[in-house]
Each structure stands twice: as structure tokens, then as C-alpha cells.
Design goal:
Length: about 375
């Protein structure tokens, strides 16, 4: 029977406690939200929603085509110019999602005969980019510059190292300076995904590459998402102008995909301008993450110290993690639940995201509810 194998896989998922379900949320939820990636609390900010509405009224509901046909508006180029300037890079190219941006960067910069050195903890979009690229991929130990150096030493020719700047599972930061040094010793490029760094790390939220002094370097390319700190949707690749020009001509997720909707571009641009005016939001997000961690560990929970705005709390098993998250939801708290295959180490977790607009009272309530519902 066609697709009969799906039923067998579904049974395996149920037995392992790995079933995933969609849970539509209402426009106004009573839950205290520590599950979204809205790090700066901008997704519903009046300036950002008005920016989206204004763009839709001006440019329409969709971009009408691929970026190389009709999908590039003046709004897109304005966003790219300001995003590159804010993050300290020469140029930027906007995509329909951060996932598409990562696929573009990795596949277009790793031609046949090249080597890709990929961190074992990388996001699925980087992993998929490695799978689709024509180069050979070597996966190395998590956050180990010497492992990257060793892998690069075995290859002659074009090479890149690929890493998240802040890893989405535990919220730990990559050693970017040491990674860049390892790459430069072997003439390799460095491609980093700053999805969880933009808006949180660096001067006024300019991102992890900026904080590490790597922004604008000729051998460094960064990808970002517009859907987290900027409260919108979409993604971008930042780097030297010649890299961006190459992506325009070679990246399949740019050439063959419809351009980012004007509303999303307008919202992201408004958020970027607000962040320029209110740079303290970045520091506040980090402070909230630190307070969450301190309170959780004081309550006897096993929480990982955050380097940005992600705080993870270890769970005994995948089933316990699912039940724990459900108990939190029933008590009025929304938290993330990460289980295999989303976690590279096989350890299930509750994943909490700090937001700049959380109050001390809300932080205390969240920690109390997590403690009261622990397995």
C-alpha cells in the first residue's frame, strides 16, 4: 500500500514519546510566553506592526515574483542596505527565510571539490545546506577550533567552516575568534549563522560577528533571520559585496524562490530602526536570561548557563520533557520542548527564551511554575 510505511514510523514515534503536534494559538493568549523567539518583544510592537501594514498598503500583499524578476522592491534594497550597515558588513541579501539564507550560503560557497567543516551542534538548516552542497562535509566536535584546524589541514583547495554563533539548543556561544584564526591558517572562509545573536549580542545588538571583531572581514560571511529579535520573518546573508553578487547569480534559494513579502520586509526594517534608537533592549534580553538561569539553578534545576537569550533546562527523558511542557502549559506558562532528533546529544530539554520585555514578577512566576511541575 502506498505510504504504508508511514504508519510504522508513526508507531515508533509514539512509543519513543517523539510525536509532534500543531497547536494553533489565538491572537490573544493568556499564557506567559517563554517559548517564542521574540527576544526583544517586538513582534507586536506598534511601530513594527504599522511598518508591516504600511508596506502591505504600499507594495501589496506579496512580492509578486522571484527577486530577479519582480520580487525585488525598493523596500528590499533599503532593508539590505540598513541591515549591512547595522551589522558592520559590506553588503546584505534578503531571502524568504533564515533557512533559505543558510541553504544559499552553504551551497553557493562550497562548490565541487571543496571541503565543508561543520560543527556537530549546527542547526538543521546548516546541516541541510551541507547535504545539498557539492563539496565534501566533515562534521567535527562541537565548539572545538582545534578540530576545525585539524580537518582543514587534511584538505588542499577551497574550504569553509560552518557554525552557529549561538547554538539553539543550549544557547552556548561558538568561539568565533578562535574559529576565524583556524580558518585563516588554512585560507578557508568562515560562514556563521547569527540567528540567535542578532539583536542580543554585540554593541546594541549588532550580533556575534560584530562582538568578535569579525564583521566586515573579507573571509567571513554571516547569515541572520528576521524572525527572532526583529519580530518579523525572512532571512539574510551578510558579507563582502563579491560574495553577495555571487549568491545573486548562484544561490538556488534566491534565484528560484519568491521574494520576501513586503509586509515582512517593512516590519523588519521598522524593528531595525527601533533597535538603533533603543540599543538597551539587547542588554535587557541578556540580563533576563541571566536572571532566569540564576533562579532556576537556585531552585535545584539543571539549567545551562546562557551566552545569549536561550536557557535550557535538562529533562530526565523525552517523555518527561513532553509531559513537563504540557504541565507548564496547563499552569499558564508556554515553554519550548526539545527532543531527539532536534537535540544533537540526545538529551531532552525544556527550552526557555528570554525576552527584553519580561518583568521580574513574570520571571519569578515562570521559575516557580517550572519548579512546581518538574517530573
Amino acid at each position: 500500500m502506498a505510504f504504508g510505511w508511514i504508519d510504522e514510523q508513526a508507531q515508533r514515534r509514539r512509543r519513543a514519546g517523539l510525536v509532534r503536534t500543531l497547536r494553533p494559538r489565538p491572537a490573544a493568549s493568556p499564557l506567559l510566553d517563554l517559548a517564542s523567539n521574540d527576544y526583544l518583544g517586538l513582534a507586536r510592537h506598534p511601530e513594527i506592526t504599522e511598518g508591516a501594514a504600511r508596506a502591505a498598503r504600499t507594495w501589496g500583499g506579496g512580492s509578486t515574483g522571484s527577486r530577479l524578476v519582480t520580487g525585488t522592491t525598493e523596500l528590499h534594497t533599503e532593508l539590505e542596505r540598513e541591515l549591512a550597515d547595522f551589522c558592520g558588513f559590506e553588503a546584505a541579501l534578503v531571502f524568504s527565510s533564515g533557512y533559505a539564507a543558510n541553504l544559499a550560503a552553504v551551497t553557493a560557497l562550497a562548490p565541487h571539490g571543496s571541503l565543508i567543516v561543520s560543527d556537530a551542534g549546527n542547526h538543521a538548516s546548516l546541516i541541510d545546506g551541507c547535504r545539498l552542497a557539492r563539496g565534501t562535509t566533515q562534521v567535527v566536535a562541537h565548539a572545538e577550533p582545534d578540530a576545525v584546524r585539524k580537518a582543514l589541514s587534511t584538505h588542499e583547495g577551497t574550504a569553509i567552516a560552518v557554525s552557529d554563533t549561538v547554538f539553539s539548543v543550549d544557547g552556548d556561544a561558538a568561539p568565533l575568534t578562535a574559529l576565524a584564526e583556524a580558518c585563516r591558517e588554512h585560507g578557508a572562509g568562515l560562514v556563521v549563522d547569527d540567528a540567535h545573536g542578532l539583536g542580543v549580542l554585540g554593541d546594541g545588538g549588532r550580533g556575534a560577528p560584530y562582538a568578535a571583531g569579525l564583521a566586515g572581514a573579507g573571509d567571513v560571511v554571516a547569515t541572520v533571520t528576521l524572525s527572532k529579535s526583529l519580530g518579523s520573518q525572512g532571512g539574510a546573508v551578510l558579507g563582502p559585496a563579491r560574495v553577495v553578487d555571487h549568491l545573486v547569480n548562484a544561490a538556488r534559494t534566491f534565484i528560484f524562490d519568491t521574494g520576501l513579502a513586503p509586509a515582512a520586509a517593512g516590519a523588519a526594517l521598522s524593528a531595525l530602526r527601533l533597535l538603533r534608537r533603543e540599543p538597551e533592549r539587547a542588554a535587557r534580553a541578556r540580563a533576563v536570561a541571566g536572571e532566569l538561569h540564576a533562579r532556576l539553578t537556585a531552585a535545584g534545576l539543571e539549567a545551562v548557563r546562557p551566552d545569549a537569550a536561550v536557557v535550557s533546562v535538562r529533562a530526565p527523558s523525552a517523555e518527561d520533557a513532553v509531559n513537563w511542557a504540557a504541565e507548564c502549559r496547563a499552569a499558564g506558562l508556554a515553554v519550548g520542548c526539545f527532543r531527539p532528533p532536534s537535540v544533537p546529544d540526545g538529551i531532552s530539554r525544556l527550552r526557555l527564551t528570554a525576552r527584553a520585555d519580561l518583568t521580574g514578577q513574570q520571571i519569578a512566576r515562570a521559575v516557580r511554575l517550572i519548579g512546581e511541575t518538574r517530573p
